[in-house]
Write a structure and sequence with these properties.
Number of helices: 0
Distance between the termini: 24 Å
Shape: elongated
Order of helices and strands: EEEEEEEEE
Structural class: mainly beta
Number of strands: 9
Length: 242
């Protein structure tokens, strides 16, 4: 899928991004390109100053009993002059599939994928097993092994009893942990919520990312973990030039 330009040369009235197309304390114009599938970021011809990149990884798939982990949200700001031309964007069309063991989601990548080379990667959530929820994506790595370790650092822990919210940076950036059979999915603020277990069916919410799925339901894009027996949601990449 190619990029969709949401708005171009729009005056910014209100440098804190609100998630709805506005900043605080900045004046001038902007260009936003949003990706829900693979594509190419086209460097604007106007003389901008900064490029803000936002990536959310795909959510993990659920098992018949447990929910998948949500994808992490990662952002970075780079000087406009760092880019000589177009950059490749990788976003999987779907999240992790549901199954006897849910599939892991796929990371969302802008350019080279690492901040040192002016790229960025949004880690994915992991899939669920028969008895445990998937780990939520961490700040730099995918969700860890289910019910054993969290996605490190910052991802929500998949658990046989609870779907935990991510800790430290994960409160705002990591994905919510998927739930075990009797628990609710973990929540996130910027990443995807964790999927709910088969008994409780309660999905993990997210304020700016996608919610996890409930029993039998897919996660909501971007980044929501699949509920028990549900698929994870795709991730996304958004590039804001200002």
């Amino acid at each position: 899928m190619t990029a969709e330009t949401i708005y171009t040369n729009k005056s910014l009235t209100n440098a804190i991004y609100s998630g709805t197309g506005t900043f605080t304390g900045v004046t001038g114009s902007s260009n936003v390109q949003s990706f829900t599938g693979p594509g190419t970021w086209t460097k604007p011809t106007a003389a901008y100053t900064m490029v803000r990149v936002e990536c959310i990884g795909g959510g993990g798939g659920g098992s018949p009993a447990s929910g998948g982990g949500g994808g992490a949200f990662v952002y970075g700001q780079f000087p406009f002059g760092s880019y000589a031309g177009p950059q490749t964007v990788t976003v999987a069309a779907t999240g992790g599939a549901a199954g006897a063991t849910g599939a892991n989601g796929t990371a969302s990548v802008f350019g080279p994928g690492t901040p040192g080379t002016f790229g960025l990667t949004g880690p994915a959530g992991s899939g669920a097993t028969a008895v445990a929820g998937g780990g939520g994506g961490g700040m730099t790595t995918a969700g860890g092994p289910v019910a054993v370790t969290a996605g490190a650092p910052g991802g929500g822990t998949g658990s046989g009893t609870t779907g935990n919210t991510g800790s430290i940076h994960a409160t705002f950036f990591g994905g919510g942990g998927g739930a075990g059979p009797t628990a609710a999915g973990g929540s996130s603020v910027w990443g995807g919520g964790g999927g709910g277990g088969a008994v409780s069916g309660t999905a993990g919410p997210s304020i700016f990312g996608g919610a996890g799925g409930g029993f039998g339901a897919a996660g909501t894009a971007p980044g929501g973990g699949g509920g028990s027996a549900g698929a994870g949601a795709r991730g996304s990449v958004r590039v804001i030039t200002f």
